[in-house]
Amino acid sequence: MNSFELNKIAGAVLAAALAVVVVSAVADIAVSPTYPEKMAYVIDTGAEEKGAEKSEGAEETGPSLGALLASADVAKGEKVFKKCSSCHTVDEGGKNKVGPNLHAILNAEKGKKPGFGYSGALIEMGGTWTYDHLDAFLKKPKDFIKGTKMSFAGIKKPGDRANLIAYLRTLGTSDIPLPAAN
């Protein structure tokens, strides 16, 4: 086999590859899918009703935080805390990491743990970490404190938040009474 035959084979392979690319590009240009504005068959999943409730500003229905805390499982809360342990410690006198040490966080003043640089937004907010504030913060930190440095997305399930708060309560603040279960 001489070099001329090898050139013909290589040229045929390249021509085939080029043909595939050209046909694909032409097909993309010629056929652009369009989607209807309204679905032809509507399947009732109840999602629109839930979305409408949330858009009207209705609060989530379900047990109150007090009821959730009354039945919270501290062991499950310790498991939920594993999400937090990469940035926080809970040992008494423990060091700060990316986030502050959370030992005895309940009723502690916001932004006042020594040795940690809090965001200005948290310091300006002031007050103490109540059960309700912890719950709202853990749900979605950026919604509770606009401008917080905490990049955590939040814990969506109310039961998981209650379990975590119950666990944090055992760390030096178990004498703080639970909120009323309404």
What CATH architecture label of one domain applies? Answer: Orthogonal Bundle
CATH top level label of one domain? Mainly Alpha
Query: Quaternary status of these chains?
Result: single chain
| Residue runs with pLDDT of under 50 for 5 or more positions | 50-58
Helical residue percent band: 40-55%
Intertermini distance:
90 Å
Strand content: under 5%
Q: What's the story with the biggest beta sheet?
A: none
SSE pattern: HHHHHHHH
Would you count the extended β strands for me? 0
The chain-level mean pLDDT equals: 86
Structure description:
- There is one protein chain.
- Helices cover 45% and strands 0% of the residues.
- It is built from 8 helices and no strands.
- The longest helix is centred in the N-terminal third of the chain and has 28 residues, at 3-30.
- It has helices at 3-30, 47-55, 65-70, 74-81, 120-125, 131-139, 141-144, 158-169.
- With 182 residues, the protein is mostly helical.
- It is elongated and about 90 Å long.
Summarize the structure.
This protein is mainly alpha-helical and about 180 residues long. Helix content is about 45%, strand content about 0%.
Key features of this structure:
mainly alpha; 182 residues; Cytochrome Bc1 Complex, Chain D, domain 2; elongated
What's the structural blueprint in terms of helices and strands?
Blueprint: H1 3-30, H2 47-55, H3 65-70, H4 74-81, H5 120-125, H6 131-139, H7 141-144, H8 158-169
Helix pairs in contact: 4-8, 6-8
